[in-house]
Specification:
By secondary structure, the protein is an alpha/beta fold. The protein is built from seven helices and seven strands. Helix 2 packs across helix 3. It is globular and about 60 Å long.
Length: 195
Amino acid sequence: MKNRILKIAFFLPTLNVGGIERVFITYGNSLSEFYDVEFVLCKKEGILLKELSSKVNVYNLGNVRLANSFYYLRKYLKQNRLDCIITGGDYPNMVLVLASLHLSHRPKIVISQHNYFNIEIEHLGLWAKFSKIWTRIIYPYSHKIIAVSDGIYKYLIYDLKQKPTKIIKVPNPINVKEINVKSKKNVSLICLIII
């Protein structure tokens, strides 16, 4: 009997410019050499779409906003037997965890924390306080949480009260091939001196 290839998905609102998007594209392209990889997007848009390997599938939830994606993401999770789905960013993390609860076949839910939640949304006032509380309640329902640095690891434990056994530290990847290609290009340097 032939071994089944694992199916791994990445959930994001779009593939517009952003750090998390680039990190996941690097992961997805590398994993697509060995696994069935799919990007699940609220909207199939963004300048980074062209960066995806031809081996990576893209699934559009229907051009919905992240805030309205719960139902569509849950429907996708029910219809597709994923082994694992990964997301990043405070709100995508919460949406994915909630959408996956109580499914008959629940894939491994891996969320990633790339920033300090309180710094990102402190200007939102009362909403920020509720969001931090919701994060503390919802994050434990994931299978694993990726921390991209020692600081984020400590933040997850001490500020968001997550169990250390649930957290793994994985620094952001570096695409060495891309760096080598770009290093060989001629670049005109413009210096601006202000006196």
